[in-house]
From TrEMBL:
Annotated ranges, domain Thioredoxin: 24-158
Signal peptide start and end residues: 1-22
InterPro entries named among the record's database cross-references: AGR/TXD, Thioredoxin-like_sf, Thioredoxin_domain
Superkingdom to which the source organism belongs: Bacteria
Keyword Endoplasmic reticulum: no
Keywords, ordered alphabetically: Signal
Entry protein name: Thioredoxin family protein
PANTHER family to which the protein is assigned, alphabetical: ANTERIOR GRADIENT PROTEIN-RELATED, THIOREDOXIN DOMAIN-CONTAINING PROTEIN
């Protein structure tokens, strides 16, 4: 009899452990969505974006950010819907450049006049020949989570130089 009740206790404990594991997994937050390719060759992608911009008669919108950054992910989401998506699609070839923990592609940001120390996401607009039209300089997009679509739209329009 002792063996039987011991096995019942073990079975009950295992069942409880399985329930607890399932509840923990259900309550665990989802992993952040990856919107920046952490393994991309940013310079090669920039060359491709410039070629596409020439072919499409558009400018290049370069957005510097990182997957760990909630404001970067928020900006990406905002640019995929509504008026922002329309503006980006109509006027830009979009290039998202991963900056890691400020240890990747910082030289590229610096060349474009984008001060990453002011916060990310940060952006620059390039003509199709690679010349920088304008760049964020003071963390204009660094609070993208709390910015409304209109505020983000205004920053992008200011970068592009058109309404």
């Amino acid at each position: 009899m002792k063996t039987f009740s011991l096995s019942l206790m073990i079975s009950a404990c295992l069942a409880l452990a399985n329930v607890a594991t399932a509840q923990t997994q259900a309550a665990a937050p989802a992993a952040p969505v990856s919107v920046y390719d952490e393994h991309a060759d940013a310079r090669a992608e920039l060359n491709q974006a410039l070629a596409a911009a020439r072919a499409q008669h558009k400018n290049v919108l370069v957005v510097f950010g990182a997957n760990w950054c909630p404001d970067c992910r928020a900006l990406d989401g905002k640019m995929k819907a509504g008026a922002l998506a329309s503006l980006v699609d109509k006027r830009f070839v979009l290039l998202k450049v991963d900056v890691g923990r400020f240890n990747r592609n910082t030289d590229l940001a610096e060349q474009m006049g984008v001060p990453l120390k002011k916060g990310i996401p940060a952006a620059a607009v390039l003509k199709s020949d690679g010349d920088v039209l304008k760049a964020t300089g003071g963390g204009e997009l660094a609070d993208a989570r709390s910015m409304g679509d209109e505020a983000v739209l205004k920053v992008l329009q200011d970068l592009h130089g058109k309404s």
